[in-house]
């Protein structure tokens, strides 16, 4: 839920440009025979030029990756005959100042006169590239006193050229530290005084280790500007040496670098666009947390200056690494042909980490070692959640809850949006929800759960003594202050005015815990939905705006929506306990999430907190989770939600999902059916929409949506033991839960740009229908054996292949990967019931007849289950027609019994089975589907061995 519905604006990327209606031309410009012939000649000329361009392009496409990238870039800016030699001449060095490798010298209000004053070059003959750009070897800073010892390289950087931004810093300190064999940390700071650095995430402080065993090298040369990071002597992965300009002024910091030719870039969030960042054109990504409906090329709710980079691919093998800028200030990150990148931030320091992971999975795991491993969710949170802004009353809430339960749709968590409050005020219950506590008690009695919305904004317009959250907060002095040290006053949903708790103030933890505690006594909720915490403000600053100073009006404003840092948020000059809002804005959400999660653990007696936050920052997943905000009910938004979900898994926030069927605007039955199927495989699965739209819970939209949602959610619930085990791995090692195919198949180049299907872990392939009117979908299958979940048919991909899959409206195509063993249970109405049913282990044999898997078990809710060893972990393997289970940990005794073992892919004629050395008759073999089913009643906390025998083989 975001800004008032009347003011929600979304710029649809699919909308055509607005046409301009021109009046009739004057008589002398109207059609004449001469003008007709002239037009024909012009058309012929351009056809010839176009054909010539295609020939040139074909030649270049046969050349190396540099030329391919060059040609792609040329097409992107528009083929220009008089510039083609300059742009893509075969012998042109890749590191030239051609139009497509220009680094912007004047990002605002460029003009030739001021450009030349900066010592830069001016050329406006090519469109869509910077007109004002840095010459080669601009040399804004010069390296000196380079030293290296004990795993650390140090240097000073002396300013040589004035930057045109106020308060240039003359002397910089450069330090490169080899923190691990695969992690490099480089900081560039003011050599004479401390500057602001973020307090989240709490990054590890380690001793530097020798570079001799490192997977990287750092080169910084005397009397040059910048530095290089290398993976090998011939593989420079970050080259900022004498490229563009290093700028380090008080409120403008910039560094530019080139990546290897052919690199693919992913990451930089939060954004609503494909995972892969195209580098054929100039693109700018702005990070400054903002309440705005998700739209391409707009700064959204969270800030994640992290990139995953494929730096090498020879057609059969790839290399990957990660790059992270630890900086919480507003910034632009510009990508461009080359490929190249510019980081441009308006505060803090330049604090970079590199992660040499070789594979995407390794990169993510190494990144999360720095920012924090994800929190383990409770088991019940993996069920289906339902909400709507605008139920308006408890009676309506119960009506929707009842019809969802009656439709036999698996369902675990009921939510309420803002309308449960009294006059939109936090920590209150409105008169139409006076019996909410009784409803929540009933939910708990049948194993269900409840989550309400809690905004950070506290009403400041109530009468003294009548609203404790404001009075007590004022007494403690825990609100964000204005320049006069009085509470900063804006407005969100409250009737008159709003103030904001300062979550950097230690006193606020006690305050926030007490307020939540008192609400919990009224309604025993199970989690907290913290919305509007960018923080959102219906004013831009105060009702009078913001004071004129360098924090509110800095010399450079990144490309934020609204044009000012304070647009629909607090004034940057507002004061927190730990500093100015200018520095802390992007961390407001994570700061609130930290305090909320700690409060929930205390209030709920050490049960795992479920804190779903809209605003995020690196390290957020260590404390809380995320949903992707006020998406629109469109096919485009549904499709892009796949990339959003995968991006946040990459950022270390695996418990994430979009509002199923969309939040803004009216859905349709077909869209909601398909989105319900997709949403059943979001790690966080919730249907939610706005107060000015039609109802979109499955039952409200009719049988087609009910059938689609029910079937997909039953599959989800049957696979919850597998999903829960994936979250255990994420919590322990930093693996992703939902992941793109290139995480599993990094050496299959066809997966590197594939974003229309994804995986749960290593084993489940999800191929959703994402286009209107389609009843089939083309699925890409990397090499291996894939088992159709819906039909039990097998896709044998001796090499990668694409295959059309039948997908009627009630079916989402799903495939289990050969080589996997999946734990599953019978789906019931809730996770509470489902987790009590016996286990089935599904073994899917690969081409060699082997497989492996695991299952993790605990009580599902205790926050210290893993720390205290109160869990059980069992590994499974299949090889040479023998299934075995091995107990790794047996700290949780209530593991469900094993009732069935299914062996998929055994096509030989099974003649006998033994279980733990005893001949076994309770089995069935289906020759048509090649499935062997063995019925048992075994304790998984005791090791198990099942063997089957075949008398002949069928191909």
UniProtKB/TrEMBL annotation:
InterPro entries for the chain: Gal_mutarotase_sf_dom (IPR011013), GH (IPR017853), Glyco_hydro_31_C (IPR048395), Glyco_hydro_31_CS (IPR030459), Glyco_hydro_31_N_dom (IPR025887), Glyco_hydro_31_TIM (IPR000322), Glyco_hydro_b (IPR013780), P_trefoil_dom (IPR000519)
This protein's record includes keyword Ribonucleoprotein: no
A cellular component term, taken from the record's GO annotations: membrane
Stretches that traverse the bilayer: 36-61
Domain annotation P-type: ranges: 93-136
Keywords: Disulfide bond, Glycoprotein, Glycosidase, Hydrolase, Membrane, Transmembrane, Transmembrane helix
GO biological process terms, semicolon-separated: carbohydrate metabolic process
CDD domains the record matches: GH31_MGAM_SI_GAA (cd06602), GH31_N (cd14752), Trefoil (cd00111)
SUPFAM superfamilies per the UniProt record, alphabetical: (Trans)glycosidases, Galactose mutarotase-like, Glycosyl hydrolase domain
GO MF annotation list: alpha-1,4-glucosidase activity; carbohydrate binding
Major place of residence: membrane
Cystines in this chain: 105-120, 115-132
UniProt-annotated location(s): Membrane
Family: Belongs to the glycosyl hydrolase 31 family.
Protein name: Lysosomal alpha-glucosidase
Species per Swiss-Prot/TrEMBL record: Frankliniella occidentalis
High-level lineage: Eukaryota, Metazoa, Ecdysozoa, Arthropoda, Hexapoda
């Amino acid at each position: 839920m975001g800004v008032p519905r009347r003011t929600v604006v979304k710029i649809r990327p699919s909308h055509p440009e607005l046409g301009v209606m021109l009046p009739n031309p004057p008589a002398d410009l109207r059609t004449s025979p001469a003008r007709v012939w002239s037009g024909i000649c012009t058309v012929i000329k351009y056809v010839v030029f176009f054909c010539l361009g295609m020939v040139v392009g074909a030649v270049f496409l046969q050349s190396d990756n540099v030329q391919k990238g060059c040609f792609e870039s040329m097409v992107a800016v528009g083929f220009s005959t008089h510039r083609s030699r300059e742009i893509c001449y075969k012998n042109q060095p890749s590191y030239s100042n051609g139009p497509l490798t220009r680094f912007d010298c004047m990002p605002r209000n460029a003009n030739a006169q001021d450009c030349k004053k900066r010592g830069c070059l001016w050329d406006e003959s090519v469109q869509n590239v910077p007109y004002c750009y840095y010459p080669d070897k601009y040399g804004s800073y010069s390296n000196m006193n380079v030293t290296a010892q004990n795993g650390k390289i140090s240097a000073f950087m002396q300013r040589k050229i004035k930057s045109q931004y106020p308060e240039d810093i003359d002397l910089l300190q450069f330090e490169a530290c080899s923190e691990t064999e695969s992690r490099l940390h480089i900081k560039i700071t003011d050599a004479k005084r401390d500057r602001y650095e973020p307090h989240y995430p709490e990054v590890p402080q380690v001793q530097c280790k020798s570079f001799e065993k490192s997977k990287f090298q750092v080169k910084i040369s005397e009397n040059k500007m910048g530095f290089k990071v290398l993976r090998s002597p011939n593989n420079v992965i970050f080259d900022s040496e004498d490229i563009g300009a290093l700028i380090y002024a008080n409120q403008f910091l910039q560094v530019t670098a080139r990546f290897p030719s052919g690199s693919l870039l992913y990451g930089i969030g939060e954004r609503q666009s494909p995972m892969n960042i195209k580098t054929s054109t100039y693109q700018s990504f702005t990070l400054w947390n903002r309440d705005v409906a998700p739209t391409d090329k707009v700064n959204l709710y969270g800030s994640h200056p992290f990139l995953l980079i494929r730096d090498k691919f020879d057609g059969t093998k790839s290399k990957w690494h990660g790059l992270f800028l630890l900086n919480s200030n507003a910034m632009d990150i510009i990508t461009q042909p080359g490929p190249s990148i510019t980081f441009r931030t308006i505060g803090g320091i330049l604090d970079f980490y590199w992660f040499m992971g070789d594979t995407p999975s390794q990169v993510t795991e190494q990144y999360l070692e720095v920012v924090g491993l994800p929190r383990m969710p409770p088991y019940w949170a993996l069920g289906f959640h339902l909400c709507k802004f605008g139920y308006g009353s408890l009676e309506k809430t119960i009506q929707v809850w009842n019809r969802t339960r009656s439709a036999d749709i698996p369902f675990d968590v009921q939510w309420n949006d803002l309308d449960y409050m009294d006059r939109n005020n936090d920590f209150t219950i409105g008169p139409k929800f006076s019996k909410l506590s009784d409803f929540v008690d009933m939910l708990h009695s049948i194993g269900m759960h409840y989550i309400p919305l809690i905004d950070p904004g506290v009403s400041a317009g109530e009468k003294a003594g009548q609203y404790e959250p404001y009075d007590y907060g004022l007494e403690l002095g825990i609100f964000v202050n204005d320049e006069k040290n009085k509470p900063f006053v804006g407005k969100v949903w409250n009737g008159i005015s709003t103030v904001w708790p300062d979550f950097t103030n230690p006193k606020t933890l006690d305050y926030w815990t007490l307020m939540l505690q008192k609400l919990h006594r009224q309604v025993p909720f199970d989690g907290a939905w913290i919305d509007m915490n960018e923080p959102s403000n219906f004013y831009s600053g105060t009702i009078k705006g913001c004071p004129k100073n360098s924090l509110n009006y800095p010399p450079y404003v990144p490309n934020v929506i609204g044009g000012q840092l304070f647009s629909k948020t607090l004034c940057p000059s507002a004061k927190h306990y730990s500093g100015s809002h200018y520095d802390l804005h992007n961390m407001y959400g994570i700061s609130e999430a930290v305090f909320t999660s700690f409060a929930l653990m205390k209030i709920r007696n050490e049960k795992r907190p479920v804190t779903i936050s809209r605003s995020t920052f690196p390290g957020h997943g260590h404390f809380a989770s995320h949903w992707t905000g006020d998406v629109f009910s469109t096919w485009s938004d549904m499709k892009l939600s796949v990339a959003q979900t995968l991006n946040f898994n990459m950022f270390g926030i695996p418990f994430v999902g979009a509002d199923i069927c969309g939040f803004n605007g009216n859905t349709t039955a077909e869209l909601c059916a398909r989105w319900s199927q997709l949403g059943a495989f979001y790690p966080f699965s919730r249907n939610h929409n706005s107060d000015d739209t039609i109802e979109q819970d499955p039952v409200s939209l009719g049988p087609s949506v009910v059938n689609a949602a029910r079937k997909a959610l039953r599959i989800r619930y049957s696979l919850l033991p597998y999903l829960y085990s994936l979250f255990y791995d994420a919590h322990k090692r930093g693996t992703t839960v939902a992941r793109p195919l290139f995480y599993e198949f990094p050496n299959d180049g066809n997966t590197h740009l594939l974003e229309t299907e994804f995986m749960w872990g290593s084993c489940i392939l999800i191929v959703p229908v994402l286009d209107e009117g389609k009843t089939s979908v083309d699925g890409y299958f990397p090499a291996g054996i894939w088992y159709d979940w819906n039909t039990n048919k097998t896709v044998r991909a001796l090499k990668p292949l694409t295959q059309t899959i039948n997908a009627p409206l009630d079916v989402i195509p799903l495939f289990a990967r050969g080589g996997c063993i999946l734990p599953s249970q019978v789906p019931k109405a809730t996770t509470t019931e489902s987790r009590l049913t016996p286990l089935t282990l599904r073994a899917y044999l690969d081409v060699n007849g082997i497989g492996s898997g695991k299952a993790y078990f605990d009580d599902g809710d205790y926050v210290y289950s893993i720390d205290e060893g109160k869990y059980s972990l069992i590994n499974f393997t299949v090889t040479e027609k023998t299934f075995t289970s091995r107990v790794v940990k047996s700290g949780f005794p209530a593991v469900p019994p094993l009732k069935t073992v299914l062996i998929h892919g055994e096509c030989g004629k099974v003649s006998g089975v033994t279980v733990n050395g005893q001949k076994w008759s309770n089995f069935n073999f289906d020759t048509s589907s090649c499935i062997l089913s063995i019925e048992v009643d075994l304790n998984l906390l005791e090791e198990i061995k099942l063997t089957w025998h075949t008398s002949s083989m069928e191909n």
